[in-house]
Amino acid sequence: DLNNFAETHANEILSIYYHTDFPGDDPFNKKNSADPSARSLYYGIVEAPITVMNGITDGPDISDWLETRFRKNVLEESLFSINISFNDDPEVLLNIEATITANVDLEANVITHIAIVEEEVTMDGKKYYNVLRRMLPTAAGTELSQHVWKKGNAKKIKQSWNVENLEDTSKVRVIVFLQDKTTKEVYQAAYAKPSYTPPIVTGIPEWPGQTEEKAVPKPFVYPNPTHTGATVVLASSGNYNWNVLDKLGRMVSAGNILNSNKILLNTSHLAAGLYVVHIKDMQGNIFPVRLSVVH
Q: Which residues fall within 8 angstroms of residue 129, CB to CB, at 6 or more apart?
């Protein structure tokens, strides 16, 4: 059992649980679908549950590989150190500062990820652990401009978050991890409890027009897979900005629509592969849609 394994090795393992919209509906995913969708796309994951350790997975049956890989990883040298701190300016936000320091001389293209998790949530009598609530600024992370590191070199990353979609603010934790841009290897991770907790922002429905009593359909895209183009249909007409991200989180296309519920995408210039279309309304809500391009 993954939870038992992580608890047994709590001093060495930091876990993040990405709740996807497959194989079925997930109540946590309804609160934040963009980040799990982007991370699934990044790793090429099409089935769940599945475990990724330090950026690598060897299949859904963790009994075949988890213990062996863990024993190997704990013996490897820590190339970086991470220090997480907090401040209350402005006090209405959760303000995070991560300091990344090289422990050795090395060359690496590093992406810093900041994940907000809720340490424990009980739903329908079942406990869930380290539920992902948000990745800052997005699931694509922040690429560090420095590629040649000397021992002692340090970089600081600052992010702020409007606290929302939480069951218990006292359970908020921040995980910062460093990932190689090319190999996806995770170099280091750190975990901290905020020194203060801002008030929760009242949640906004996940989809336009959605309420607790009645949910409207999610946006959908057709044809999917596609070759030269696709249409995204939204639940209601309005003004929207949109962009298309590849599996590395890079923006490959963008645009906007006015007083419409349809986005026409030109995919003829895109390489074959999986993409996420992020649609943003005027209230700042983001609606992700997966898109497969084939040639």
A: 3, 6, 15, 17, 119, 120, 121
In whole angstroms, give the CA distance from residue 131 to residue 118.
5
Greatest CA span in the chain, whole angstroms? 57
Q: What amino acid occupies position 54? A: N
Could you give phi then psi for residue 244, rounded to 5 degrees? -115, 125
Can you give the pLDDT at residue 138? 87
Cβ–Cβ < 8 Å for 93, 160: yes
Residues of the chain short of pLDDT 50, as ranges, are: 201-216
For the segment 136-150, what is each residue's pLDDT rounded down to a tens digit?
988 999 999 888 999
Its pTM stands at: 0.69
Query: Cβ(22)–Cβ(29) under 8 Å?
Result: no
Q: Which of 235, 238, 240, 243 is nearest to 207 (CA)?
A: 235
